[in-house]
Amino acid sequence: MQNNQQQGQTIQVDLTKCESIACDTVLLDEKGGKKICGSLFKPKVEMKIVSAIYSPTGSEITIPVMTFFCENCGKRLESGNTPMIYIMK
Ligand SMILES: [Zn+2]
Predict the structure, then answer these.
(1) What is this structure's pTM?
(2) How far is the CA of 76 from the centre of ligand 1 (A)?
(3) What is the model's pLDDT at position 9?
(4) How does pLDDT run across 19-76, given as a tens digit for each residue?
């Protein structure tokens, strides 16, 4: 009993061949060399109000926007990230 009508195209990706996005905070090790802060991120939700002028529905809507923060230092991930946007009806 599978409903495939609402599923999009499935793409298989070998994640071992994909590069991970790292936090761009620069950390220095004991010898003064640069080291990566971290590549794990915590998701948080930011609420945005879209005014009627820009809203696709023609009336003001609130949308939760998923944003990600470095698990190590807490810095917001800005680069290489397309925010996932969900529209609440
Ligand atoms: Zn970090």
Answers:
(1) 0.61
(2) 8
(3) 76
(4) 888 888 888 888 988 888 988 999 999 899 999 998 888 999 999 988 899 999 999 9
Instruction: Calculate how far, in angstroms, residue 66's C-alpha sits from the geometric centre of ligand 1.
Output: 18
User: What separation in Å is there between the alpha carbon of 38 and the centre of ligand 1?
Assistant: 5
Taking the centre of ligand 1 as the mean of its atom positions, its distance from the CA of residue 19, in whole angstroms, is: 17
The strand pairing partners of 44, in sequence order, are 67
Taking the C-alpha atoms of residue 76 and residue 45, their distance in angstroms, rounded to an integer, is 12
